[in-house]
């Protein structure tokens, strides 16, 4: 590639708004086309964001100026769309999860290898300045040796806000596959490969109904666990505990605490690109515990949003380096998610077979709004 990197987006649903907000202003990329099964929807999105063309899926796959296809389809379609894009000679950035199961994820990676193309996988929120500032601080020893983490996400579920929530309660959905990638990808960014998991899971209801939009009142089945408690072991020896739920009236999200030998660091919500970082030090006595207050760690880096991972991949291709949110990382997170689901079914500890290199930190001076290509 030379000059700006050409982008084509497949999937013009809700999440495309966030991607287009950023990809249309990064100087290193140009969005040429938006495609969707609903051509009218794709055309409307293209017109709204000043993109030259809206059309169907083939309009993206066949576009001569598209270098990277952004796959924003539902999880069940990730494999089909990603493989088609790779076979069309495009690199692929896909929303999470990489696929709905290991076999499909492996077929995507195999197709990339056969085509000599790259795959990147969301979430890229953990590449934002909030998480990356914390990652660099931990690596520099701010809390001593990190040995454990606690994460959590819970609320009443996406059917309260999404006009078509069925897929979020079907295979490849639920809080595990919908929100789990943010937390487990974050943990892998900090601790490296997961070696095993144990989990319990259940459902508060076997059927739910659409609550907003033209389908309001329509019932749909709940096919996957919607409340899970997970224990995670890492190959390097750390451990974590996680709560993921679509079944609680209380809305508590973004819990991400890392405990070290010299303190605890509270990280920003891994579903966002920035946020407060709080440092707690051990208290000297009981009075100190009662009066404990955190120190704020200043966030360093330019604030941005979704599409950051695709931008890093575009620059990495041009620079001849590995991008940060690789398909292999996405596959390892998928392997962890499937292992959690298996642990729920088997009520047993499940070994995670795959391994991945711990991603490097984003440089503190990384500027998504600079022209580098």
Automatic annotation (TrEMBL):
Residues 7-120 form the Gfo/Idh/MocA-like oxidoreductase N-terminal domain. Keywords: NAD, Oxidoreductase. It comes from the Bacteria. Residues 131-265 form the GFO/IDH/MocA-like oxidoreductase domain. Signal peptide: none annotated. SUPFAM superfamilies: Glyceraldehyde-3-phosphate dehydrogenase-like, C-terminal domain, NAD(P)-binding Rossmann-fold domains. Transmembrane segments: none annotated. GO terms for molecular function: nucleotide binding; oxidoreductase activity. This is Oxidoreductase. The lineage of its organism: Bacteria, Bacillati, Actinomycetota, Actinomycetes, Micrococcales.
């Amino acid at each position: 590639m030379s000059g700006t990197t050409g982008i084509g987006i497949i999937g013009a649903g809700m999440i495309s708004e966030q991607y287009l907000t950023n990809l249309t202003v990064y100087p290193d990329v140009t969005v040429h086309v938006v495609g969707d099964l609903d051509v009218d929807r794709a055309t409307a999105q293209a017109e709204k964001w000043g993109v030259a063309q809206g059309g169907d899926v083939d309009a993206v796959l066949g576009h001569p100026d598209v270098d990277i296809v952004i796959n924003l389809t539902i999880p069940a379609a990730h494999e089909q769309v990603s493989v088609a894009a790779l076979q069309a000679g495009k690199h692929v950035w896909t929303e999470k999860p990489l696929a709905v199961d290991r076999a499909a994820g492996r077929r995507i990676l195999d197709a990339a290898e056969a085509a000599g193309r790259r795959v990147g996988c969301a979430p890229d929120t953990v590449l934002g300045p909030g998480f990356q500032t914390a990652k660099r601080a931990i690596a520099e020893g701010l809390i001593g040796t990190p040995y454990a983490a606690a994460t959590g996400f819970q609320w009443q579920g996406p059917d309260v806000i999404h006009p078509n929530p069925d897929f979020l309660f079907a295979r490849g959905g639920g809080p595990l596959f919908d929100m789990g990638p943010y937390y487990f990808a974050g943990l892998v960014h900090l601790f490296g490969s997961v070696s095993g998991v144990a989990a319990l899971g259940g459902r508060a209801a076997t059927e739910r109904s659409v609550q907003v939009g033209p389908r309001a009142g329509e019932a749909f089945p709940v096919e996957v666990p919607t409340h899970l408690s997970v224990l995670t072991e890492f190959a390097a020896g750390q451990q974590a505990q996680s709560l993921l739920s679509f079944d609680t009236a209380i809305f508590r999200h973004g819990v991400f605490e890392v405990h070290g030998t010299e303190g605890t660091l509270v990280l920003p919500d891994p579903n966002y690109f920035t946020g407060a970082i709080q440092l707690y030090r051990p208290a000297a006595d009981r009075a100190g515990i009662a009066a404990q207050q955190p120190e704020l760690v200043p966030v360093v880096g330019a604030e941005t949003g979704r599409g950051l991972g695709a931008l890093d991949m575009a620059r990495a291709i041009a620079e001849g380096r590995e991008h940060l949110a690789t398909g292999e990382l996405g596959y390892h997170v998928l392997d962890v998610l499937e292992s959690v689901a298996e642990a729920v079914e088997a009520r047993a500890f499940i070994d995670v077979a795959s391994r991945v290199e711990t991603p490097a930190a984003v440089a503190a001076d990384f500027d998504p709004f600079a022209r580098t290509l």
